[in-house]
Amino acid sequence: MSTGRFGWLRNAGRLRRDDWVRRHRLLTMLLAGTVVGLTIFGVLSDEGLTRSWLVTVLVVLPCVVAAARLPGRRLPSVAVALGLTAACGGFVAMCHGLTEAHFTFFIAVAALALYRDWAPFGVFLVATTLHHGILGSLLNGSTFDHGHADAGLHPMLWALLHGVAVLFCASFLVVGWYLASAEERRAQDNLDDSQAQLAIAFDETPVPMAMLAVDGRLLRTNSAYRKWLRLPDVLPDGFSVADLPITPIGDVPPLFDELLRHDSVNATRAYRRNDGSTTWVEVHSSAMHDKHGRLKLIVVHLMDVTATHQHNDELRRQVRHDPLTGLLSRQGFEQDLAAMMADTPGPASILYLDVDRFKSVNDGSGHAAGDLVLRSIAARLHGLVPRGALLARFGGDEFVVALPGGLDAGAPLGHAIVKELAEPTPVAGHVLALSASVGLAVATEPGCAEDAVLSADTAMYAAKRGGGNRIQVFSDQMRVAVQDRIVAEKLLREALNGDRRETLPVWFQPIVATETGEILGAETLVRMRTPDGEIHGPNRFVPAAEETGLIVPLGEHVLVEALRHLVEWRDRLRYVTVNVSPRQLAEPDFVPLLAGLLADNPELDPQRLVLEITETALLVASVDVEERLEAIKGLGVRIALDDFGTGYSSLTWLQSVPADVVKLDRSFVAGLSADPRKTSIIQAVLWLARALGMSAVAEGVEDEADVHTLREAGCPLLQGYLFGKPMPPADFAARLQRSRMATTP
Fold first, then answer.
1. CATH code at position 424
2. How confident is the model at residue 5 (pLDDT cuts 50, 70, 90)?
3. Measured between alpha carbons, how far is 105 from 129 in angstroms, rounded to an integer?
4. Residue 260 sits in which domain range?
5. pTM to 2 decimals?
6. Is the pLDDT of residue 440 over 90?
């Protein structure tokens, strides 16, 4: 039948075995139910259970038995078709041929459509036509209830009409089967294509994938999964996650239990393979449920992230350790210090050390030699610190040691470090003389460990200021100084972020001519106005500015204000001086900044601006000082050597620095008239300055007798409280006006 005239019909409506069984069972039950229905109808009718009922029942019941017992599909379905024909005919007879009773035939043909088979339709069509023709001729009144169905051809005519009607009904149902079947085939083809695509995507993807049953069985795996776990291509029946050749590492709950509890899981786990190697796996799962919400299966994607994990471990190791010396880094030290104090009750000593004059090693012998020195120091420190102590390099030439115990444990080690590093250090065929400044502080509990490191750092700077090659224990006085510096930094940041003319006003101190007392110049000095209106001198905030780098924006502000007032006072004031810190001088943008400010004031003669450079700035500057100063001189700006005479190499600087002015330090000026040696030194310096074409200013003049001595020595300019303290611009302008009036003939 699959290839004949009716093959298209059979193929169009072919049902799966289980679907056909369910439908046949339903129709068989429906056929059996017609017996009950006809019986109830007969009992409730006026005539009761008639002979028509009895004949119908006797025909239908064998059909029910045949439908239930006959093998195959065709014969049972034909039995149902015959039974439904008999039931419909019996119902018409019990209704005495009532036209409406014939509607049951159309109900039956629709029911038979569930088979999607032409045989029940054909049998039902033939049986219906025969019923109408034969019974219509023999029992006219029991088949048709209208007068036209009398003897002759009329019964057969009505039989054909009913048969054609049933045929058309069946035909449309058959067409419906065919169309529905065609749609089902297309849907099945699409489903097959989707499954094929899924199979390709699942099986051929390089990502290991598996489908797991709720009992842990592996329902399906792709080749990448089997290759990753070194499994055979065909897994044994019942193979489950418990049979996988890997074992979880660490005290972690079973991963499969977690997959069962959550619809989606993203987890990273470590496993040990059977060969002993460790692998890290990133697991992503998705749960699939049936329409009732019950878990059906779990799809897992696995990523072998072993290489990534090992790379991250190496990065963490590099972050925790200094690459040059192999010691702990700052981050590693902080982590281990917290752990050490948590594991070891009691205080811990923190030693913070810095190599004295290490910059000279780099400058004189090169950075390669400097690296060798740092490695040598690291090795020597490693040999000194006891077992259980922490040793770290914080960068540059700074090292930190932490060990359990208070000052009685830290102080001896600190002295031993100072003594050890004072020994000559052989490097690359040379012997270098080094020393170290060490600060010691004690951390009493884990929460204050970081503060103790800062305290040790502060103590180290105190040791360095004391000359180096020594150990300094942190004290409460240092803590107060640190707190004051923190407060000063906070206030300075707020001032720089506000209206700087209000929060950081510049004041001016007169510089007068020795012979006439006329104000010729002024030193620009910055002040800080706090939110409560208090005025702070530079000693309160400039050190903090130097340490934090805020000296750069602060110095720019002072330069801007100095030039603004210099333009404002025009011919009334010859020049102003502005102090430049070592940090400012080292900034690569300092000279361009200065050039820009002068360009913004084209009417200003650059020689009216004098930059004061201290000998300290010249010593610690990390740039070529002479080159930087020559660039400043190239702009027309003059340079003054401030606090001259306080350093051991001042005469050298006079010869090598292109300065225009020498400012004699107040330590030489105070008490000058009563100290002949100071007078001799002042006279020698003034003679040397004149010989080099420089002017000179004596600072800190507070006594008339000193003025007389300086005048006799030939010092042209004086500055000090005797002639005026630093004052606001308005007061200075008034003082400047009085000075001009007093000295004008």
1. 3.30.70.270
2. very low
3. 11
4. 209-310
5. 0.51
6. yes
Of all helices (H) and strands (E), which one includes residue 210?
strand 209-213
Task: Read off the pLDDT band of 744 (50, 70, 90).
Answer: low
Per-residue pLDDT tens digits for 459-513: 998 888 777 899 999 988 887 777 788 888 899 999 999 999 999 999 999 999 9
Task: Give the bridge partners for 519, in sequence order.
Answer: 512
- 3-state secondary structure (DSSP) of residue 269: strand
Neighbours of 565 (CB within 10 A): 17
For the CA atoms of the chain, what is the radius of gyration?
54
Do 399 and 530 belong together in one domain?
Answer: no
Bridge partners (DSSP) listed for residue 641: 613, 662
Same domain, 325 and 294: no
Helix (H, G, I), strand (E, B) or coil at 549: coil
Q: What is the dihedral of CA 353, 359, 365, 369, to 10 degrees?
A: 40
DSSP 8-state assignment for residue 240: B
Beta bridge partners of 65: none
263, 333: one domain: no
| Residues near 230 by beta carbon (within 8 Å), at least 6 away in sequence | 245
The CATH number of the domain where 518 resides is what?
Answer: 3.20.20.450
Helix, strand or coil, per DSSP, at residue 532: coil
Report the residue count for the chain: 745
Composition of the chain by helix, strand, coil, percent to 5: 55, 20, 25
What would the pLDDT profile of 521-531 be if each residue is shown by its tens digit?
A: 999 999 999 99
- Does residue 638 share a domain with residue 512? yes
* Closest residue by Cα to residue 112 from 151, 155, 67: 67
Q: Residue 391: in which H helix or E strand, if any?
A: strand 390-395
Q: Give the C-alpha separation, 378 to 398, whole Å.
A: 10
Dihedral angle at the C-alpha atoms of 166, 170, 173, 177, nearest 10 degrees? 170
Question: Which residue bears the tokens 């290839």?
Answer: 3
**Residue whose entry in the numeric block shows the structure tokens 């029940």:** 120
**pLDDT, greater one: 547 or 576:** 576
The per-residue pLDDT for 438 is 95
Mark 89-105 as b/e (b = at least 16 C-beta within 10 Å).
bbbbbbbebeeebbebb
In a domain, 490, yes or no: no
Shared domain for 437 and 561, answered yes or no, is: no
Q: How far apart are CA 669 and CA 661, in angstroms?
A: 16
Dihedral angle of Cα 284, 290, 291, 294, to the nearest 10 degrees: -90
pLDDT of amino acid 230: 85
Question: For residues 742 and 745, what is the distance between their CA atoms, to the nearest angstrom?
Answer: 8
Separation between Cα atoms, residue 375 and residue 361, nearest integer Å: 14
Task: Please state the domain count of the chain.
Answer: 4
Q: Amino acid letter at 729?
A: P
Distance CA 242, CA 259 (A): 14
Contact residues for 221 (Cβ-Cβ < 8 A; gap 6+): 209, 210, 211, 231, 235
Q: Which tokens hold the place of 174?
A: 């058959």
Shared domain for 111 and 49, answered yes or no, is yes
Q: Is the pLDDT of residue 311 over 60?
A: yes
3-state secondary structure of 664: strand
| Pairing label, strands 348-355, 398-404 | antiparallel
Q: How far apart are the first and last CA of the chain?
A: 140
